[in-house]
Fold this protein.
Amino acid sequence: MKKIGLSALCGVMLVTSSTTAQATERLLPGLGNTGYDVQSYAVAYDYSPGTSQMPASVDIVARAEHGLSSFTLDAVARQVKSVTVNGLPAEYQLDNSKEKLTVKPRIALLPGLPFRTAISFVADRSLEPKSPSFPEQDNFDHWTDWDGGFELMGQPNRSHLFFPMNDIPSDKARVSFRVSVPKGYQAVANGTLRSERTKAGRTTYVFGTRDPIPTHVAQLAVGHLTEFKGTGPHGLPLRSFVDSSKAKAAGARVGLVPEQLQWVEEAIGAPYPFETYGVLGVGGVTGYALESATLSMFNADYLTGPVDGSDGTMVHELVHQYFGNAVSVKTWDDMWLSEGHAAYYTGLYHDAKGRRKLDDFMRDAWEFESGERPKYGPPGRPADLSSILYGTNPGGAVTLYALRQKLGLKTFQQIEKTFFERFRNKAASTQDYIDVVNEVSGQDLTAFVREWIYGAKTPPFPG
Ligand SMILES: [Zn+2]
């Protein structure tokens, strides 16, 4: 490990990037980095069963937002072996207690220009420090070991356990994984399979996303998996992967994906935003599902359930591909924009299928939210880590329902479509949504939405 020196730099005026997470992340101070914008991560792992350690590397392309003599990344690793910036060896320091990797390029970075950082490191799946802000609420396996393999659960603030990154939802980037596995294992990750080569008993899979995604929905699974291929609306390629021991039983539920896609596209009024979709059914996932970009993750047992109407969670994670992934949240205080939409459209789906009236679904959500708001905080000011993940669903959904009841279905649908199309592949804040509401409705509904999102008490049930 090399220490960061303090030698003076010549020539240009430089600003050293620093972590200003208090300014961006109210609840998760220390998270995130400033001074650059990441365009892409190319991650590589060599996986071998029987050890938690994996030789790894990540190649990060970013653009400097101002002159940088040094910069930081969110990171936890067993060891960093080398760092280069634009091909030249750089000084670096890994501090696992602060979860930061500080990098000092040999030649300072110029404002506006892209730069490439290549980091060779050792990832260790047994290295799982608890979330520093809310250790008592961090009850997840993030490197989720399962059946000799693993998958990832980084939401909201643990994806930097997997590789060094700028781990905030507003800094989206294309992500690719190159993973080498021994015979009998398979790897699958976000996006599309770009290559698969077998040599000397090991197979190397390369998956990558066409579009930028937020870091908290990066996904890679290694294990014994069976692939289901299919085609969605307007020729969208589908691929799902399920624990091979449960694949046969999961066939019926996996087969629901095309019609769910069709329904969601019509309800939101916009085509599915990514280049592929599918579900991932694995072990080790208990009590939650995750909207991994292009590949929603579930416990395989959930996918073996009957096709009897309890497929709402599949629709919930699918809607997140629009709201949460394609339109990501700017900060975790905006999480209701992701969870509220996922919950709202799930209620709408049950109504459309004749299972339950939307009004009844929303009344339950409202009752729950009214009772829990003092504990969870209002949807736009979650009280803690659990509230980010679970407390923003019902309040966000009822807020959208209140807007729909106030403005009528047609105007509400126009708001949704406009918001989605305007912020697709970008990040949006609560104010961004309010601006679209006001623009499309022709009214100033700022106070109305703010009361639902930030009020100490839940407003009366809509209508
Ligand atoms: Zn959700």
In short: The chain has eleven helices and 21 strands. The CA atoms of residues 450 and 463 lie 18 Å apart.
